[in-house]
Amino acid sequence: MHDVKLSDGVVTLSPLRLDDVDAHLAGEDELLVRWLNGGPGTRAGTEAYFRQCIEQWATGGLLRAFGIRVDAQSSLAGTIDLRFESPSLAAGQVNIAYGLYPAWRGQGLATRAVHLVCRYAAAEGAAQGVLQVAPENPGSAAVARRSGFTYVKQVREAEGNRLDWYVCDLPTVTVPGH
Fold first, then answer.
1. Is residue 117 part of a domain?
2. For the segment 123-132, what is each residue's pLDDT rounded down to a tens digit?
3. Which residues are within 8 A (CB) of 161 and not within 5 positions of it... i.e. 6 or more apart?
4. Residue 119 sits in a domain of what CATH number?
5. Sign of the Cα pseudo-torsion (132, 55, 6, 119, in order)
6. Main-chain dihedrals φ then ψ at residue 139, nearest 5 degrees
7. Which of 15, 160, 162, 173 has an alpha carbon 20 to 30 Å from 71's alpha carbon atom?
8. 176 in a domain, yes or no?
9. What is the 3-state secondary structure of the chain?
10. Does any domain span residue 134?
């Protein structure tokens, strides 16, 4: 697995691993299911997804999924991932998706994680970050704004879902140790 660890001293991002499955399933709630997962997680489905994430890291794939970790025990507080390619993205754009477990919300951790992952994405060659937020999800929109993203448009997906797009030009940075 790719050995990446990003930290600002409060939040640490590192690749998801199989021993995160239990913490992820325990942290899943109605909001994560609604806004991020699309349905309640199962052990088999979550393990399969985490294995895919591990494989993407190992092969330098287009998906980079991180666990958001906090405190001395590196407790899993949520996830954040980057997708470097998607039919809806222009060249140089990277999609960012995040979710925090209930006990960790409202503490600024998602904003910190977005800042860290943006630095990583820029070091990997991305020029612009994209956050796609359901209009009915004010918490996620607030994270986008606090993270320096600007609302640019609303898009209707093929399935009919509406998403507000927030974008941010990524600085040219080098991640220490990367």
1. yes
2. 999 999 999 9
3. 134
4. 3.40.630.30
5. negative
6. -65, -45
7. 173
8. no
9. CCCCCEECCCEEEEECCHHHHHHHHHHCCHHHHHHHHCCCCCHHHHHHHHHHHHHHHHHCCCEEEEEEEECCCCEEEEEEEEECCCCCCCCCEEEEEEEECHHHCCCCHHHHHHHHHHHHHHHCCCCEEEEEECCCCHHHHHHHHHCCCEEEEEEECCCCCEEEEEEEECCCCCCCCC
10. no
Residue 87: which residues within 8 A CB-CB, separation 6 or more?
none
For residue 150, being part of any structural domain is answered with no
Confidence of residue 54 (pLDDT cuts 50, 70, 90): very high
Q: Considering the entire predicted model, what is its pTM?
A: 0.89
CB 74 within 8 A of CB 19: no
Residue 20 CB-half CA count within 13 A = 26
d(CA 60, CA 169): 23
Mean pLDDT of all residues in 116-145: 94
Q: Which residues of 52-62 are buried (b: 16+ CB within 10 A; e: fewer)?
A: ebbebbeeeee
Instruction: Extract the tokens encoding 168.
Output: 């941010």
- The whole domain housing 73 covers 6-126
Residues 6+ apart with CB under 8 A from 10: 70, 109, 112
